[in-house]
Amino acid sequence: MKLQAMLKVLFATVSLGSLMLVGCTPTQQASSPQQGEASPSTVEVQQRTTPTTQPTQRTPDVVYVPTPPEVVDRMLTIAKVGKNDVLYDLGSGDGRIPIAALQKYKVKKAVGIDIDPQRIQEANANAEKAGLTGKVQFLQQDLFTSDFSDATVITLYLLPELNLKLRPKLLKLPPGTRIVSHAFDMGDWKADKVEQVDGRTVYFWTVPKQIPANLQKSTPSS
Ligand SMILES: C[S@@+](CC[C@H](N)C(=O)[O-])C[C@H]1O[C@@H](n2cnc3c(N)ncnc32)[C@H](O)[C@@H]1O
Q: Alpha helix (H) ranges present in 32-116?
């Protein structure tokens, strides 16, 4: 009887110890965030405090095709880009236009906007190679909703219908803002200059002081 009682006490002690181990250690490990993984509370804070910096996630309106370097050069010379300029490339691909604008034309600010995270990664890698990290900015945003109101020069290589969709926003920029487009025009907003480079067309416009009546419609015609 005495031995039986002692065995009961021993069994009860061992079981309680195991339960305590199961109850604490493994569960805590399973619910801890892995390295680099945000805990739910961090995610919640990020969502609450930084809604405007969330990158845009949707299919690009046009696929990536790079502008050849000699065309990039002509786009920047036709717009007389220089040290007082703030340049935005809307749909910036691998970042070659903002990078050239800083490296060769010494603009005071160069920004590339692209909706595709892969392009933003490539552009940042190219900026690093060029020693321009922190000087050129690449933002993963939708060019139709992004803020480029401080631009003095806008560069584009999109599609005719995208140029037309963007046109009302471009015409709201301060008079004198220069716009250059590789390959595609702006419908009935006739270019101030048109040049050919290696079989490609470069169009150049300046935002006018008075917007002509035919350009004031919100849905432009081609
Ligand atoms: C034809 S590439 C031009 C790349 C670069 N500007 C150049 O000339 O070499 C067009 C770029 O626009 C980007 N894009 C498409 N739709 C966009 C949108 N709604 N907002 C921002 N970028 C967009 C694509 O991801 C692509 O990189």
A: 40-49, 69-78, 96-103
